[in-house]
Write a structure and sequence with these properties.
The complex is a heterodimer of chains A (419) and B (323). With 419 residues, chain A is α/β, with parallel strands linked by helices. Chain A has 21 helices and 7 strands. In chain A, the strands form 2 sheets. Chain A has a 5-stranded parallel sheet. Chain A has a two-stranded parallel sheet with strand order 6-7. The longest helix of chain A is centred in the C-terminal third of the chain and has 27 residues, at 335-361. Chain A is flat. The termini of chain A are far apart. With 323 residues, chain B is of the alpha/beta class. Chain B is 58% helix and 8% strand. Chain B has helices at 6-9, 22-34, 50-62, 81-93, 115-127, 146-150, 162-176, 182-192, 196-207, 215-225, 230-238, 242-255, 260-273, 278-297, 301-321, and strands spanning 40-43, 70-74, 103-108, 132-138, 153-156. In chain B, helix 8 (182-192) crosses helix 9 and helix 11 (230-238) packs antiparallel against helix 12. The chains are: A alpha/beta (419), B alpha/beta (323). At the A-B interface, helix 13, helix 14, helix 16, helix 17 and helix 18 of A face helix 9, helix 10, helix 12, helix 14 and helix 15 of B.
């Protein structure tokens, strides 16, 4: 079976959607009110954490009320231009009977802010004038960037279902799939998924597909089998065996992603191979492995992978010559990966500020991050008035201002002066 | 309340407002007067007025609507052959309406263009000379391929003298009503080394603190504006602290977005300035060259430079031993 269970067992009626009784009712009332003419709030804003059933509620209700659902993806309404393009859709009466169309703007979290301040303005216009019901969904409607939009919307909060509700949803699926599942096991899955129903269903599929029984042992195994342990074993062999064959064998038998393993080895090697002479050798081999990783990426010749493995396993193993053992040293999670994900948003923001500077200052975004931004930071930290003026001049949004100002308080002061 | 970056607000708007670079300005003015410009290369260190000169030339020549007759492209954001194929060609081949039959294309940071893109430019430049003149701006003209250089009139910009920089800053200081001590001027010149953009940005950041600008203010600005320091990293490695040095490297790359090529360039300079024995300098230089080449090929900056840091750690240890 190639379809995912989240698709296959998608709720068909409003009742089948777990939890959020009140929210669903509120949304239903609002939708129905359209039959008596255009209501005061022409849009509804459903918000809540991922996998609580926002989108599925909209889809199900549209079906139940026999409405035509027009769904727009994040990419369709990121910018003012894109919004203008579909605004026409909202301005018409949908069908001869009127109001029979439902427009869904899913996951608006991505809108505006960074790309286009005009986007919010344009969207607000649509919300004010639409003749068909518009539904927005987002993870957090109280994000400041939605403050204007919110005024024109009926805001409906979707909460995480209780564990009981989550379990009952999984039970329904198990029944349909002919799986006899222990309550305990299902409870474990729901808890582990953080009450995100979608991800719980995905986990259930991974664990139970093709089985007729699902017991606690089947599930608990998942928690016990920590991939870290596998990686640690491999690394112990590489860093301490001094044996090229052993090291190589450890990697090939471990069945872990070689790229991930590379990062683990690269992170941990200098903690364990401490003699500078040994370290030069080990780091040289890792650099060589990196070159081959790059060659694979470029050419897609995966046969080259064996050399990556040679250098990062055997290469590092035989580098250990003069280093003395110095007791137990814990293995660390690759800091580079941690930092990459932590600084990802920051770098994207830097880039978008860079583009703003580029538009004004005849300097590339790349260079501006070094030659202009550091000075802007100092100004934004010290002088809210000058900062506000510069924000206007550069057309910065609040996220960008906060990045430069360094903290929320200063950001507020600057934004207050903007108006 | 109106604030701009002063570096923009006080950027000269006409060739005759440019201080320094006298010979260059003279020649450019004669171009503007004749309403004819050859392809040009403006080469020289940052903040010496290359972009300004190009913009002024366009403005002086076309007058008010100059923006319609020129395009500014930034090679480090949009480098690559695709840009040359698409953007540049489309712009270059359409004829300009008006008295002057050609447009001007300013290619900023052209030394960051890949050599493939530069090769592609070669033909474009020749084919569309009638309708488009190129001004290529670069820090190092050496990084521009020979065939392009030979098609262009070269202009070499040099650092601003202290008198000229002070004169320029004084104008801003008077107009913005800033209080500054004489030592402030000296400090700004010392840190900017004749880079006028850096000088002006430093001045504005210092002024934003709202105090009389003295040596200390200037240094606190510079200290905060350059948090990631290649020198510090080298020192850490030479001291034997590889892990510390790798951490600094990581921050430079991931937090401050410093380019690998910039880091390696600086390492190379520093190694030869260092106290290392000559034989070590050459050994390290060999490693640096290899890694520089790998980075050009697109290898991982941190992994590659870490290998170099390991070598420096080793060198530092040998040095301590007196080897």
């Amino acid at each position: 079976m190639s379809t995912t269970w989240t698709q296959k067992h998608k709720p068909q009626t409003l009742n089948e959607i777990v939890g959020n009784r009140e929210a669903k009712q509120q949304f239903l009332c609002w939708l129905k009110s359209w039959s008596k003419g255009i209501p005061k709030k022409r849009a509804a804003f459903l918000h809540g954490s991922p996998g609580v059933g926002k989108t599925v509620t909209v889809e199900t209700l549209a079906k139940e009320l026999n409405m035509e659902l027009v769904e727009k993806n994040a990419s369709d309404y990121r910018t003012a231009d894109a919004i203008k393009r579909f605004a026409g859709l909202a301005s018409q009466y949908a069908t001869l009977f009127g109001g029979n169309r439902l427009i869904l703007l899913d996951e608006v979290d991505g809108i505006a802010g960074k790309e286009d301040r005009g986007g919010v303005r344009e969207l607000t216009n649509v919300l004010k004038t639409t003749r068909s019901p518009v539904v927005l969904t987002a993870n957090d409607a109280y994000n400041p960037r939605f403050s204007t939009i919110r005024k024109y919307c009926l805001v409906i909060a979707f909460k995480k279902p209780t564990i009981r509700e989550g379990v009952s949803h999984l039970k329904r699926i198990c029944a349909k799939e002919g799986i006899a599942a222990d309550e305990e096991a299902l409870k474990f899955i729901v808890e582990r998924a953080g009450r995100d129903v979608r991800s719980a269903v995905n986990d259930l599929q991974a664990l139970a597909q093709g089985k007729t029984r699902l017991a606690m042992e089947d599930v608990a195994w998942l928690a016990g089998r920590d991939r870290k342990e596998v990686i640690f074993d491999v690394m112990r062999t590489i860093l301490y065996s001094r044996d090229s064959w052993e090291a190589k064998k450890a990697v090939s038998s471990a069945d872990v992603d070689p790229d991930m393993l590379f990062h683990w080895i690269y992170e941990n090697t200098p903690y364990h191979i401490t003699d500078p002479h040994d370290l030069v050798k080990a780091m040289d081999y890792l650099a060589l492995a990196d070159i081959y990783r790059k060659r694979i990426r470029d050419t897609q010749y995966w046969t080259l992978l064996k050399y990556v493995i040679d250098f990062m396993s055997s290469g590092v193993a035989v580098s250990r010559q003069r280093t003395k053992s110095s007791g137990w040293i814990p293995f660390r999670f690759p800091e580079k990966i941690r930092m990459l994900s932590r600084t990802k948003g920051e770098r994207a923001l830097q880039k978008s500020i860079g583009m703003k500077i580029w538009k004004r200052c005849h300097i590339s975004a790349t260079r501006s991050s070094k030659e202009v931004m550091p000075y802007l930071k100092i100004i934004f930290e010290n002088n809210p008035e000058m900062a506000a003026g510069l924000s206007n001049w550069l057309d910065l949004d609040e996220d960008m201002i906060e990045y430069l100002a360094g903290n929320k308080k200063q950001t507020k002061t600057i934004v207050a002066k903007l108006a | 309340m109106s604030y701009e970056m002063w570096a923009e607000k006080y950027r000269p708007k006409s060739l005759n407002k440019i201080i320094n670079q006298k010979e260059i300005v003279d020649r450019l003015q004669s171009f503007a007067k004749a309403k004819n410009v050859p392809h040009c290369i403006f080469a020289g260190p940052p903040g010496t007025g290359k972009t300004t000169a190009a913009l002024c030339l366009a403005r002086d020549m076309y007058g008010k609507g100059y923006r319609e007759h020129m395009m500014e492209l930034n090679a480090s954001d949009e480098r690559g052959i695709k840009i040359v194929r698409e953007t540049v060609k489309t712009f270059a081949r359409t004829r300009s309406i008006g008295e002057i039959p050609f447009k001007i294309l300013i290619l900023d940071e052209a030394d960051n263009m890949t050599s493939d893109a530069q090769q592609a430019l070669r033909r474009t430049m020749e084919r569309f000379t009638e309708t488009c003149r190129f001004i290529m701006i670069a820090n190092y003209s050496g990084k521009i391929i020979e065939p392009l250089q030979s098609r262009c009139a070269p202009f070499r910009f040099s650092y601003m003298s202290k008198e000229d920089q002070d004169r320029y800053l004084r104008n801003i200081i008077e107009k913005e009503g800033i209080k500054i001590l004489d030592e402030g001027y000296d400090a700004i010149f010392e840190v900017s080394e004749g880079d006028l953009r850096k000088a002006t940005n430093t001045l504005q950041a210092a002024a934003s603190m709202g105090k009389v600008i003295d040596t200390e203010t200037v240094y606190s600005v510079i200290g905060r504006a350059n948090p990631a320091d290649v020198n510090e990293m080298i020192k850490t490695a030479m001291k034997g602290d590889f892990l510390g040095a790798r951490k600094q490297l990581r921050e430079m790359i991931l937090k401050y977005g410093v380019a690998g090529s910039d880091i390696i360039k600086q390492i190379h300079t520093e190694i030869f300035r260092s106290m290392l024995p000559d034989s070590w300098k050459v050994t390290l230089s060999e490693a640096i060259g290899e890694i520089d080449f790998r980075l050009v090929q697109g290898a991982d900056v941190e992994v590659q430079l870490s290998a170099l840091l390991a070598r420096m750690t080793e060198a530092g240890q040998e040095l301590k031993r007196g080897g």
